Amino acid sequence: MDNSEFEMLATAAFKGERVAARRLAARTQVSEAQALLQVLSLAAGALGLAQLLAERQALRQRDEERRAGRQADAAHKLAQRKAGMQATAAWRGWFDGSAHPNPGRIGIGALLCGPDGQRVEISRRAGHGNSSEAEYLALTALLEAAREMGATELAVHGDSQVVINDVNLYAARGAKGLEEHRARVMALMAALGAVNLRWVPRHRNGDADRLSQQAIGQPD
Do 67 and 94 contact (CB within 8 A), yes or no? Predict the structure, then answer.
C-alpha cells in the first residue's frame, strides 16, 4: 500500500477507527496502513470497502459544505455589523440642564463629539427657570454648536424624559410652557437634517451633567 492509498484510508476513517488501527498495529506488529485497512474493512461489512469509502467521502463533502455555509453566514453577519457601524451617526452629542433651586439659577452643559476627534464642551449659566427649561436650553445650545461645526448625522443623548418625549412624541402639541423652546429645537433639527434624539439614563450622561453643574457656580 502506497502513501496515497494510506492517506485516502486515513481521511475516510473516524477518529475512533484510527485509534483502533494504531492499537492493532502495536499489538500484531503489522503496519499502521494494514491495520487501518483491516479496521475499515470490518466496519464496511457486507457493503464492501469501496462503498464505505464513497459514503465517507460524500459525508465529508456535506460537512465541508455546511462549514462553508457557516463561514459565509458569519462573514455576512460581520459585513452587516460593519455596515451598521458605518451607518451610525457621524456626530454624537449629550446635553443636560440644571436649575438650583427648581425653579432657580440655570446651568447648561453639553458635549459634542465629531468623527475626526472634534470635541466641543459647553458649560455656562443661562438665566433663571425650571429644570425642563434648563434641559431645553442645553439641547438648544448643543444643536447650535452642531450647526456651527457643520455636523451631519447627529445622535443626541439626554436624560430628560420630559424634553425627549416633547420633541419625539408630540407632533401636534407640546408641553405647556415649553412651546417656544420646542419650536426652536425643531427648527434647529430641521436645519441640521439627520438628527436622532435619544433618552439615556442619568449615569450615562455624566459629562453633560458635570458641565451643567459646573455652570451653576458661574456668574450670569
Answer: no
